[in-house]
Amino acid sequence: MESFDAFRFPILAEKIEGGERIADHICEAAYQLRDSDDNAKLLSYGWSEGKKAEKKEDYDDYGFTSHGRHKLLSDERFHDIHTASVRQVEKYNSHMLSSPKFHIANSWVSIYGNGHFVPEHIHTHSHLSCVFYADATEGTGHIVFRNPAYAVYSMNYGNGDQYFCDKLEIQPEKGMLIIFPSFMPHYTKPHQADEDRIILSANMKFDAEFV
To answer: How many beta carbons lie within 10 A of that of residue 23, not counting itself?
Structure first.
């Protein structure tokens, strides 16, 4: 008998070489971005409603994200993490037995305080996405990936945990970088710690000749 695992959606999660050094630099830069911006997008319920900060105190209530506000790809402070992200995507592609040409389309930082989270979502208009943890607290703030086929099979199998894998939870660690298909639904559990959780997210696009 031959068994096939044809419809796989791999996720690569590992602490990268030099990750803690890179993480410290990102934390410093993330706070600089937040402190210089009074009107950035918010996380948590503010993210769901598309809200922007009206005052800096809003970041305490909802969290901060630089998404759509700052062009980090041209910011030298983020050069090392962008380079590391490219290396990890190449590693991911090797696992997939493929070598498409690609480029980083955009990236952004987010700062989560106590109780902050991001609701379930996907990353549109990209092929692969990544998240790098510049700071994380053990035991909280898990990132949760949901099986993209869940909406189809759950009608017949209910919660298919015993037959399929409904979701995958990963505990963030400082210096960890996760690569995943951009269509993979995911969310974060509320961050329950006094120390901030700080991440850098990025989207990768395959070049036109590949697709």
So the answer is: 25
CA 177 centroid distance within chain:
9
Q: What is the pLDDT of residues 153-183, one digit of tens each?
A: 887 877 666 778 888 999 999 999 999 999 9
Contact residues for 45 (Cβ-Cβ < 8 A; gap 6+): 62
Cα gap 72→56, rounded to integer Å = 21
What is each CA distance from 78 to 5, 15, 55, 182, in whole angstroms?
37, 17, 26, 21
Which residues, listed in sequence order, are joined to residue 163 by a DSSP beta bridge? none
| 43: phi then psi, degrees, rounded to nearest 5 | -105, -165
What is the chain's length? 211
Between vectors from CA 136 to CA 14 and to CA 26, what angle results, nearest 5°? 85
- CA 106/CA 11 separation, integer angstroms: 20
